[in-house]
Amino acid sequence: MYQLNAKPGVSAGLTFSELDFLMKDFQQLSSQRRGLLRVRITSQSAFTLSELIVTIGIIGVLGSILLTTLGRAKLKGYTVYSQNNLRQLSAAYIAHDVEMGKFMNYEQVRQGNWVKTIREREGYKKELFHSPAAIAKHRVGPGTAREDWCITGPEGNYEHLTRI
Asked: Where exactly are the transmembrane stretches of this chain (predicted)?
C-alpha cells in the first residue's frame, strides 16, 4: 500500500502529518486483523456431548472386541499346553508299558499310583499332572496329583480343553 524508498540517513520526504496519517492507518488495519483473528478463534466449535458419547461408545465396542480376542488366544494357549501335557503323559505311560513288557497293574492305575511311577521314572514336575487352565483360574481344589488322576470315571478328571 505505502512504500518508503528511503536509504539509511536519507529523508523519505514525508511530513509529520503524513507519517501520523500512515501510523493511524496502520493501527486501524492491525486492529481489524486482530478482530478477525478473534472471530476466527471464537467461531471454532468444540466437540458436542453427543459426539463425545458416540466416540466413547465406539472405543468401548472396540475394546470389548479386543478383550474377547485376547481371551480366546489365551484359551488357545492353554489348550496347546494341555494337549502337550497329555501327549507327554501318554508317551511316558506307553514307554513304561513297552519297557516292562506288560500293562501297568489296574489297581496301581485305579489308586493313582501310576502318577508316582511315571514321575519317578521320567522326572516330571507336578505341574504336568494338572491342567494349566484350572491352575490359572484357581479352580484346583485341595489334593495331590495322585488324587487328581484316581479314577472317578473311565476318563479320569484331567481338564483337557476343547474348542467350544
From this structure: 46-67
